[in-house]
Design brief:
- This protein has 144 residues and is α+β, with helices and mostly antiparallel strands.
- It has 3 helices and 6 strands.
- Helix content is 25%, strand content 17%.
- It has a 6-stranded antiparallel β-sheet with strand order 1-2-3-6-5-4, with no helix packed on it.
């Protein structure tokens, strides 16, 4: 398979139970087949750690404005969209096979964003609910 960003050959590597295609001596991007991104996108998922450590070749230049083709589906263009509602990370997804192309650094950004979201959820669980606030107000004002 060819890298959709720099056209180098992708190399398949085994990470735990996953087989992932990486642009190891090129741009440092990662191809993840359908449902593989969900297995590496959180910081506690150790399978994603080696993928975050990939380093691009500094001599390889990538034009981010070019439309990219799916390395699996012949002639299918990848669709670029934001990974989440926070609109911090843009990813390329194949409408045919459901695979994802992540440019170098995007997996690390996704993992950080998911960790932030988990932290915010944990903080939200410790906050007062509207029912608790009304109860405390009634106690304070004597309006039981």
């Amino acid at each position: 398979m060819k890298c959709p960003a720099c056209f180098h050959s992708l190399r398949e590597i085994q990470i735990g139970a996953l087989k992932v295609d990486v642009c190891q001596h090129g741009c440092g991007g990662i191809w993840l087949d359908r449902f593989e991104l969900q297995q590496v996108d959180e910081e506690h998922e150790t399978a994603g750690e080696p993928l975050v450590m990939l380093h691009p070749n500094p001599n390889v230049k990538v034009d981010p404005s070019l439309k990219r083709e799916c390395p699996r589906c012949d002639g299918v263009k990848l669709k670029r969209h934001f990974f989440s509602a926070k609109r911090r990370v843009e990813v390329d997804e194949c409408p045919g096979c459901g695979g994802y192309w992540l440019d170098h650094g995007e997996l690390a950004q996704i993992r950080r964003e998911k960790a932030e979201e988990a932290h915010e959820r944990r903080l939200g669980q410790n906050s007062l609910t509207p029912e608790m606030i009304r109860y405390l107000y009634r106690l304070r004002t004597g309006a039981a």
